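Posting this for the archive.
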Amino acid sequence: MRSSNPVFSRRGFSRDNGTAGFNGQQSQAGGPAVGANPYATGTPYAEGTTNPYATNPYAPQDTQLGAPQQARGNVMTIDDVVSRTAMTLGTVVLTAVLSWFLLPVDSANLGKSYGIAIGAALVAFVLAMVQSFKRKPSPALILSYAAFEGVFLGVISAAVSTYIADGVVMQAVLGTMAVFAGVLIAYKMGWIRVNRRFYGFVMAAAMGFMLLMVVNLLFAVFAGGDGLGFRSGGLGILFGVIGVILGACFLALDFKQVEDGVNYGAPREEAWLAAFGLTMTLVWIYLEMLRLLSILQGDD
């Protein structure tokens, strides 16, 4: 089972056949996948499996059932993920705030600011794709992506706050934080079980959601107006809620991928990849939250 996040699916953070396997490898004897789900038996590793990061000299080397895991130096920890994620999100927030003030969205400058925002979004997309296909995470590339993403978010947020509803941006930020905290608590408490069925449901829903958004965009471009109406009114509210829920599901998948990477003793540099994936998901949730709240306040 692959990760929901294209960043994770290119590296060790991948899940095949319902297990926490890495790159879908099978054992030579036809047994369980290499790196089978470490939580299946309630122990760090299932019996008869090997650590997919065994080539990392600092990773846990003893993979036998019930054996103590003596991790050393250069392995990814939760603290590493938290610190890298804070740096990446901090870059997004900083550039968003700067673009809010330096790229005004008044009538005289709206076109110029929109042009810069669209350009920044395209650059961020290209950087995200380059990092997704790189063999190793690049902190400079990831932080550059965060900076350009922040420029786009800053201009869009300023425009929504100016022309649609003052104060909606702060509400969207608080809503995004609430979704993150809620999913994290639910995941840690075991209320969300990330398994093959959960993954399949989320990916099917995400593909359907994106397909409908593309169709709506095509109708809007060629037929004018709001296309099929998925971006306004009752349908807009419904699809906004679905978008936020999908973002929450992606967060749960990301948490599972990070937890597996930490448990397997992934190299410390993988923390940047985790931060990159989490940032992409949080940006998704924020944009969907901003759109949903904009529709709700615009209808008042």
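The two ends are 43 Å apart (CA to CA). Residues 7-50, 61-71 have pLDDT under 50 and may be disordered.
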